[in-house]
Amino acid sequence: MAERLIEFEFAGNCFTFRADLPEEEIEEILEYLEERKRRLRGRRQLSPLKQAVVLLLEITAELVRIKREHRLLSEKIGREAIRLSEVIEKELKCLGCA
Fold it and tell me: Kindly report the CA angle at 44 between 41 and 48, in degrees rounded to 5?
């Protein structure tokens, strides 16, 4: 995948970076950041640096929450897979298949 330049405006500053992600993923990331920036606009005036820090903290908190949810769901799926495997094995024994 070809690397391309991406421009992003934040707090009156234009940032340019390189990315080799699929176009759809880049668009989704930029849309997400735009939505998060809109949420910041409703707050009292903050300096650009404080806006960036608030945004960073909010997104990091969201990432931590999602990672925790993912871990809990993965554990639940693992437990359920074991339980279903045991049920299937028991049923197969009852049927004389195992």
Answer: 65
What is the spatial distance between Cα 17 and Cα 24, in angstroms, rounded to a whole number? 17
Token output for 55: 């945004």
> Cβ distance 9 to 15 under 8 Å?
yes
Strand 13-19 and strand 4-10: pairing? antiparallel
pLDDT tens profile 30-84: 899 889 888 887 777 888 888 889 899 999 999 999 999 999 999 999 999 999 9
- b or e along 14-35 (b: 16 or more beta carbons within 10 Å of the residue's beta carbon)? eeeeeeeeeeeeeeeeeeeeee
| DSSP bridge partners of 15 | 8
Element (H, E) at 80: helix 48-94
- Predicted TM-score of the model (pTM): 0.72
| Cβ atoms 26, 6 nearer than 8 A | yes
Residue type, 7: E
